[in-house]
Amino acid sequence: MTKKVVSVQDISCYGQCSQTVALPVLSVLGVETVILPSAVLSTHTTSFEGYTVHDLTEEMPKIVAHWKKENITFDAIYTGYISDVRQFDCILDLRSQLNPGGMVIVDPAIADHGELYPALSDDIVEGMRRLVSVADVIIPNITEAALLTNTEYKPDFTQNEIEGILHKLAALGPHYSVITGVSYESGKLGAVCLDKESGEITNYFSDYVNKICYGTGDIFSSVVVGRMVNGSSVYDALKTASEFVTSCIRATIGDDEHHYGVHFESVLHELLK
Ligand code: PXL
Q1: 200 and 235 in contact (C-beta within 8 Å)?
Q2: Does residue 256 surpass a pLDDT of 90?
Q3: Do the beta carbons of residue 176 and residue 104 sit within 8 Å?
C-alpha cells in the first residue's frame, strides 16, 4: 500500500527548497505527499534580500481540524522549516490526533554555518527541542545539532566531539539522531547516526564536491523520509540520501547563475533505482 506522509514546512515559491523539493522527491519514491504549509515566502531567506513572508500559524490548526473530521490519518509526519514558535502545539496535536503510533521525522531546519536563519527568533530553538523529544528520527546539520544541545558552534568539530553531540541529541528523546554535513577526512562528506537503543553509531560518507549549494539539506531529509517510510533501514536511507545529494550538486556545477538551489530535476530518476 502506498504510504502517506504529511510534510510540514514552508512554501518558498522560488528557491528549490522545503515543500517544492519534498513533493517531487517523495513522489518519485512512491509516497503520497500531503502538505501542511507553515508559511508562504516569495523566496527562501538565505540567498535573497527583501523576501516576503506570509505566516500560516492561524490557518494550520483549521486545516488539521478539517482533516480530523474527514478521518484522515498519516503513516508519517515529516517536519522542516517552521516559521513561528506557536506552530509546535499544532504539530504535536497533529501527531496525537492523526498519526498516533506513526513515524515522526524532524529536520530542525533553523540554522546553518553557525547562524540561525534570518527570519527566525531565538525561541524557535526551545520549540524545536519539544518537537525533537517526540521524534523517531532527527536530521539536523552541525549548526542545528549544536544549537539543540547548547554546544558552542565551531566549523571543525572532531569525531569525538560529534559523537558527544550525538549522545546529547539522543538524550533529548529521538530513537535515531542523525547529523548531516559531517567530514572526518578531506574529500569525504556525509552523515552520522546514533541509534539510542543499541548505542550503535553508523556513518555514511560520499565524495565531497567542492561547491556550496543551498537546499541540499531539504533534499537529503526528503530522501531519508521516503526511504524510511517505505521500510528501509536508517543506514540505507542515509546512503541513498548522501549519494543523491552528491549527484544533485554535481549536476549544478558549471551553472554559476544558479546560486539558490540545485538542479535536482536532471538526476531525480536516480531515485527510481
Ligand atoms: O532550506 C531550508 C529553508 C527552508 N525554508 C526557508 C529557508 C530555508 C533556509 O534558508 O529560508 C524559508
Answers
A1: no
A2: no
A3: no
Cα–Cα distances in Å, from 118 out to 34, 53, 90, 224? 27, 12, 23, 26
Q: Is the pLDDT of residue 104 over 90?
A: yes
**CA-47 nearest atom, ligand 1:** 10
d(CA 108, CA 148): 9
Q: Could you tell me if the CB of 41 is within 6 A of ligand 1?
A: yes
Say how many Å lie between the CA of residue 44 and the centre of ligand 1.
5
Q: Is the CB of 215 under 6 A from ligand 1?
A: yes
DSSP state of 130: H
Q: Residue type for 234, please?
A: V
Q: Model pTM? A: 0.98
CB atoms near residue 15 (< 10 Å) = 23
**Index of the ligand 1 atom closest to the CA of residue 53:** 12
Whether 235 has a pLDDT exceeding 90, the answer reads yes
Q: Sheet of 176-182: strands edge to edge?
A: 53-55, 32-43, 4-14, 76-79, 103-106, 137-138, 176-182, 188-195, 201-207
- For the stretch 32-83, pLDDT in tens is 999 999 999 999 999 899 999 999 999 999 999 999 999 999 999 999 999 9
Rounded to the nearest angstrom, the distance between the alpha carbon of 81 and the centre of ligand 1 is: 6
At 174-212, the pLDDT tens digits run 999 999 999 999 999 999 999 999 999 999 999 999 888
CA angle, residues 120, 15, 99, in degrees to nearest 5: 65
d(CA 118, CA 187): 30
